[in-house]
Every structure is written in C-alpha cells, then in structure tokens.
Amino acid sequence: MASSRPSPAFFVLVTSCLAAGATFNACSAEGDGDSVDDGSGSASGGAGTTSTGGQSSVSQGVGGFSPTGAGGSSCGSDPDSDFDEDGFSQNDGDCNDCDALVNPAAVEVIAEPDADGGVPPAADEDCDGMTDNIVTCDQGIALDESDPLLAAKAIGLCKFVTSAKWVLADGSPPPVDATQLANFHRGHGVQDHLGPNNLPQEGERMLMVSSGAARREDQPQFFHRNFEKGYTSNPPAGFPKESATCPNVTTGGARDATGLELEITAPSNAKGFKFDFDFFTFEWPSFICTTFNDFFVAILEPFPPMQTDGNISYDSGGNPISVNNAFLDICGCPSGPPCGAPPANPKKQFDCAFGTTGVIGTDWDVDDTHVGWTNGSTGWLRTTAPVEPGQEFKIRFVTYDSADSKVDSATLIDNWQWSATPGSVQTVVPPPK
To answer: Are both 169 and 128 inside the same structural domain?
Structure first.
C-alpha cells in the first residue's frame, strides 16, 4: 500500500460562498496553510446559482471583480489591454498584468517552503485583494440538501463548477418513478461526522454517497444494511472491472447507484487536483471475491492518458475501490488478523492494519452474521490527477451495488484541492492531519 506523502505541492481553493440568487458573500477562513478571513473587494459582476430538475449551474461573473489592495501591477499603460494574454485586462480585474498566472480566474497558491527551506513571499494570485487566504463554503448545508451544486461545496469545490447534477453509475439521470426517485435521494447526504472518528477533512461538512441510505443511525430515513431502492443502470464505461486478486470472478450489473457529476473549468494556474474519500462496505467479510460486490468510482472525462476508462481511484495493483481492494484496512475478526472471509477464503486475506477504530460508532461496527467480526472500511484515502490550466472537464463520484441490491456500501468525499504541479493519477494514504 502506498503510504508516502503525495509529491505535488497543493494549493487550496479560495472562493467566496455562493448563495442561490445572491452575490458573493464572505466565508470564514479555514485550512492547513496561512489563512485570513475573506474580506475581498466588491464583485460587481456578481454570481448566482440556479437549480432545475436536480441540476444546477453557476454563472461566475469574473469580469466584474474589482481588485482592492492588489497592487495594480502593469506591463503597459492601456488598462483595457491584456499584456500577459491571460484573458484579463486591468479593467477586467487583473491585479498583475505582467504574470499570466495571476488573474480573477486563478486560484490562491499557499506559500510553502522550497527545497532549501525558504518560503516565497505570499502573493494574491486570484486578485481578491488578499494573500494566502483560505475559505470554506460548506457551512450550514442540510443533510438532505437536494441541490447538487451545494453537494459540490460540501466536498470543498466552492468555485469553478459550471454545472452539477445527480446521476446513476453511467452518468444517466436518476429514475423518474416517484418512489425510486425518493429512494435515490436517500442515497446522498451531507454529513458533519460519521461516528466519532470520521470527520470532515476541510470545513464543516462532507458528502456521503451510498448504494443504501446515506444516513447515520441517529438520523431520519436511516436504513440498515439492505436498502433495496428498486432501480438499475448500466455500469460506468470500462466496468465491470474485476480485481486482479480475485481471478475467475465476474461482477454483476450495477444496482442502486447514487452519484454526483460535476462539470468544472480548472483555474488558469492549476495543473492538478486532489480529493479525499473513505469507503465503507457491508460486503466485508462475507462477499470477498464473489459476484456480489460494491464499487466507489471517480470517473474523469476526458479519460486520463493511457487509460481505457476514466476511473482514477484504485489501489496500487489497479484494483477498483471495492471489497477486494488492498486499501480495505479498517476491519476486525475474532482471532485477529490476518482475516479472510468466513469460512476462511484462500483467495484473499486482510491484514486489518488500522484495526476497528474507523468503524466504531458507525453502522459498520458490528457484522450481523458473524459474531466478533466488523464490516470494513478503507479509512481516508487521497486521489490525485493532472489537469490543464483552464481545462473543462467532468468528474463523476458514484457508489453502487453489483449483482443484487442488498449489503450496501457508502463513501465519504471531501477536501477537494487544486495543485500547482501536474503530479500523476494515483490513490494514496494521506499524511495524518
């Protein structure tokens, strides 16, 4: 299992909270670098959100930014000219028209020590009048929020999202039948914690997508283990994808999927992104290496180079995130690790290296069938991927059952951040917070 600190130097998305039909609002500052309150200047261009039929879009209005205290650096005397050719003139809000990486469509880069230990001076890359300011935008989002744009904010994507929609495993719309649609929407929820040991990785909220009910045991509409929603879909492109560790096993079709698909325009100075996720499943331990399996996928479009599908979350062996992936390390059995499926499964064993702490206080802390066993979780993982500055792309987060609609799984998603360096497509264990 990869466990080293990711190599890219990441910078945190800095934005103002967007409320439906409102202009930019101030948000509290929070993060793991230098941070200040968002006291940005006026945004006369405005921004707003609309929501129709489970899909939202946002108009950014970046041309209306008015830089305050940004220095007004200029490489020429004409305030209407775009001297650095980044798409913005001084009158468009470009606070440094000598640097193409600085403009209202950029994202704030948090100053970090270089190889010699020196820290470069903080700069105002997004021309909001402040340096190294980190803000969050997920305050007060309701558990059962139906607006997918607010679900994006729950994972830390406060800006640069051009549309958001709820989807099935293959990206198709949710079912139209009223009962099935209600069941679909029980499969997503915005949580402030899941048990005492699974907390937001940024801000106050995190998104939960489930093949069952995305609810804690103490919340309305909770359903234990086997929530059969009554609908199916095609799997994502390239799936079913079998785990190399489970030869001669064919996974069944996609059922009870819940997903969020986002269309995003990368910041003008971004070369990569990352997000954190934590996968929980009732499939462990009974359904290791069987046709019954649940998946979490993160589908990136366009597909990454050299990939035949868009899934970017997988273990070091190329196994998708399921009960059979090598990251499933939060678990326990009566005799202690190594643990195999009861009765012992000769195809695959689990070390359960992180014990049961991560499932304590959740619905996965006790297995209903086998006394002394828990169910399983990966713990927090981090996926990284490269992106081109200004690139338009899609990402789809989905959790779904396969072969049947029972024995559910769920995934927490949080802490989206942009990267100043490309990095590579990989999933790792992040460093402790």
So the answer is: no
